[in-house]
Design goal:
This protein is of the alpha+beta class. The chain has one domain. Helices cover 24% and strands 24% of the residues. It has a 3-stranded antiparallel beta sheet, with no helix packed on it. The protein is elongated, with a radius of gyration of 21 Å.
Length: 105
């Protein structure tokens, strides 16, 4: 008789509801807003609240180390607010370059 085998199950599911920004803060993937810690539930889950969209997000404490860090180009998830920050930085760089060119003349 043939042996029955269990189907392959991934070790750990990817985290897609939150990401860690370059500043180390947790952000809500849906809107890009910063998450605020509301408390702990049972010592195994952390409750966060997003004031931007408003939404409640629960994350198991063991998953904190696996939260992806996303930033700028090449990131799989690019929240809207990061794109806006990059645009602001680009505008500031252009203004600085224009000022430097004017000072050189």
């Amino acid at each position: 008789m043939a042996e029955k085998t269990r189907p392959a199950v991934p070790d750990v599911p990817p985290i897609s509801t939150v990401f860690r920004g370059e500043n180390g803060m947790l952000h809500h993937t849906r809107c890009g807003g910063v998450l605020n810690l509301q408390g702990s539930r049972g010592g195994i889950e952390l409750d966060f609240y997003c004031f931007t969209c408003p939404a409640h997000v629960t994350i198991p404490d063991v998953a904190l180390a696996r939260i992806p860090v996303l930033s700028g180009p090449g990131a799989q998830l690019v929240p809207r607010h990061l794109a806006r920050i990059e645009e602001i930085e680009e505008i500031e760089e252009n203004e600085e370059n224009e000022e430097n060119e004017e000072n050189e003349e």
